[in-house]
Write a structure and sequence with these properties.
Elongation Factor Tu (Ef-tu), domain 3; alpha+beta; four-stranded antiparallel sheet; 4 domains; six-stranded antiparallel barrel
């Protein structure tokens, strides 16, 4: 029994000795400073000049579309020389109509003119003789007046016959359907063998091959758009087009409350076609904006944040509102002060209050502070 008690006291004494050493060690520990969680580069938010633009949607359309129809009535189409998509010049023959009947009528009118001309020459000669004889006393004044009247009547018949010849020539020329202007054939209804009436539409022509973009903008944006402003457009086919504002519609649609902006497209060829949907941006000018590198903005839960470096190299998470983009920089519209020191990249790995090690930004980072390409709204 005495041996067991001695062993217990021996174990308890050893435990007490170890415990005292542990507590002594804990008492002499000194809390160490937190280590940097990440090495980052820092840049300053800067005020730069960015382009202001309005984004809009709309359709491509023909600048002007001419309707080419038949002028002659009741004639059959004998030949069609163009098809949809063909480029034509002003005065080119697009189709031919039957002309035999009109040629015969023209020949008849020319014969009538020749007959009237001969009669007029005879009447004129009679009038000259009557005037001579009247001066010699062989013709009375009444006979002279009668001869002069016959001469005038013959001359009038000549004029009437000449007008009939001109009319037949015009009708004959109408058997050739010609292009009223240079452009591209956009539609064709003419068919060989069909009999057409006066005014029947045969072709549609995009004048000069010019297209325009009809963009829809809100009523609040009308006053900001200037005639002549440059426009960049992307058609549904993927082609990029350049243009200028030609006119802003004088009225606003009562249903949609939108207005049309007519944009002339510069001469170009490609996949863009009339009737195609397109998106574009209308330039409004330049304005000053506070910007940071795009890599400095971190998106979390649908919100944008940047990290600024403060005292003791600790970062603070700041919620911001972003706007236009220009090259590698993005506009910050609210939440950030000018000249704030912002973490240039790597913010996705940081949390509010983290300690970081700051190194100098490389030269390329400083170059990003310069104004870049035109921005988007």
């Amino acid at each position: 029994m005495k041996k067991c008690s001695a062993r217990v006291w021996l174990i308890m004494g050893a435990w007490a000795s170890v415990s005292s050493q542990v507590y002594a060690t804990d008492d002499i520990k000194v809390p160490s400073r937190s280590k940097p969680s990440l090495t980052v580069t820092v840049v300053e938010a800067q005020v730069t000049s960015l382009a202001q633009k309005i984004s809009a949607n709309g359709n491509l359309a023909a600048w002007q579309e001419a309707i080419v129809g038949a002028e002659a009535n009741g004639l059959k189409i004998t030949e069609v020389r163009v098809n949809v998509g063909d480029r034509v010049r002003r005065g080119d023959v697009l189709a031919l109509l039957q002309s035999e009947t009109l040629r015969a009528e023209l020949a008849q009118a020319e014969g009538t003119l020749a007959e009237a001309t001969a009669s007029a020459q005879e009447a004129k000669a009679q009038a000259e003789r009557a005037r001579s004889l009247q001066q010699q006393g062989f013709f009375s004044n009444a006979q002279l007046s009668q001869a002069l009247a016959a001469d005038a009547s013959a001359q009038a018949r000549v004029q009437s016959a000449r007008a009939l010849v001109q009319l037949q020539n015009v009708r004959l020329s109408q058997t050739q359907v010609r292009a009223p202007d240079a452009g591209v054939i956009s539609a064709r209804q003419a068919t060989v063998g069909s009999v057409v009436g006066a005014g029947t539409e045969l072709f549609r022509l995009i004048r000069q091959g010019r297209l325009e973009w009809r963009a829809e903008v809100t009523a609040a944006e009308i006053g900001r758009i200037q005639v002549g402003a440059p426009v960049q457009i992307k058609a549904a086919s993927g082609q990029l087009l350049q243009g200028k504002v030609r006119m802003v519609a004088p009225s606003v649609d009562a249903q949609t409350r939108n207005a049309l902006v007519y944009v002339d497209l510069l001469a170009q060829t490609g996949s863009a076609r009339a009737g195609m949907y397109a998106q574009g941006e209308i330039a409004l000018g330049q304005s000053q904006a506070l910007t940071v590198p795009q890599a400095a903005v971190v998106v979390r839960d649908g919100f944008s944040y940047v990290y600024t470096v403060g005292a003791e190299q600790k970062v603070s998470q700041i919620k911001v509102q972003t706007g236009r983009r220009s090259g590698e920089r993005i506009e910050v519209t609210s939440g950030l002060k000018a000249d704030a020191r912002v973490v240039a990249s790597g913010g996705a790995f940081l949390n509010h209050g983290d300690t970081v090690r700051v190194v100098d930004a490389p030269a390329a980072q400083a170059a990003q502070a310069a104004p870049a390409a035109p921005a988007t709204q």
